[in-house]
Amino acid sequence: MKYVTLLSTLFILMSVTSTAKKCHVINFRSPNLLPESFTWDPKYQHFIVGSTRHHKILAVSDAGVVETLISDTSLPSNSSFLGLAVDRHNNRLLTVIHRRSPPFNALASYDLQYRRRLFLSPLLDDESIAMITSAVAVDYSGNAYVTDSSNDVIWKVDSNGVVSILSKSKAFKSHPVDATTEYHKTGLNGIVYSSRGYLLVVQSNTGKLFKVNVDDGIARTVTLNKNLTGANGIAVRSDGVVLVVSRDKLYFLNSNDGWGEGGVYDETTLEVEKSPTAVIVGDEKRVYVLYGYVMEGKMGNEERDEFSIVEVESEVENFEEPIWLYILIGLGLTYFMFWRFQMHRLVETLNKKTV
């Protein structure tokens, strides 16, 4: 009877563990926001969301409560907030500003405590050069790194707003581009700073991942087991797992040699019609994707007012975790059964000696 009870307990534990936890979905409202980027602020425990239609940046709680964090009406008209990054060490928000026509590209820095602009650094001196700045990353010293998707350039902006070019590596132009894709003109896009002192950058039109030295700008292509088709945003978890969002997938990647080589070990399908454009790591290593419906806006829809931030999990990771728990439970049960068997034999031996 006791064995049946133990087996029943084991079955219940396995059933509870195998029940997938419900992923976190945050729906929030803001008329015609059409956000392309977002980030997580660990100090204030909220998401920060940009806008391609308004000169404002929102704070969104995990319950979907919206507050205007930054409203900067002094920016050029028709400009958009694209890439966002929180400088945790200096309590600043860094955001890429882009306007298509007349062209304007800059990096803005905002104090998150007082919610005021610290600087606005233009990233283009010669307006005759077509340029689309898209994403930004920040290192521990407050240096920001901005990608130019049109020219495959990485800009560097120091903590005081001084601009320089970090990299125009030939590696960025060394891979063939399929001219039939919608994104064939979009080069370097998502960028992230690794705590080990280098940048990882994705290229949309080739699906390649690059490792870039922050001291000299030397870039090397990371050897992967597959191309990251249509890669857009990128993030890195504290355990070293790299996440890349494309138009229809979220890729999970890892590397055993500091990103000389790497591999995609899982892919999660995303909802294309909602325009997933960015991925971030929030609290407790939870991974979130932004559904900003940007393509609707490009097609002329000005009526949308509801958007979402959705937690995405790896099925491979979810499968592996309970397997190890089952093994541990099984080992524990085996040890217990063995112990009972040994105790039973000991009691029988003692009884025989007593007789």
TrEMBL record:
<keyword id="KW-0812">Transmembrane</keyword>
<dbReference type="InterPro" id="IPR011042">
    <property type="entry name" value="6-blade_b-propeller_TolB-like"/>
</dbReference>
<dbReference type="GO" id="GO:0005783">
    <property type="term" value="C:endoplasmic reticulum"/>
</dbReference>
<protein>
    <submittedName>
        <fullName>Uncharacterized protein</fullName>
    </submittedName>
</protein>
<keyword id="KW-0732">Signal</keyword>
<feature type="transmembrane region" description="Helical">
    <location>
        <begin position="323"/>
        <end position="341"/>
    </location>
</feature>
<feature type="signal peptide">
    <location>
        <begin position="1"/>
        <end position="20"/>
    </location>
</feature>
<keyword id="KW-1133">Transmembrane helix</keyword>
<dbReference type="InterPro" id="IPR053224">
    <property type="entry name" value="Sensory_adhesion_molecule"/>
</dbReference>
<keyword id="KW-0472">Membrane</keyword>
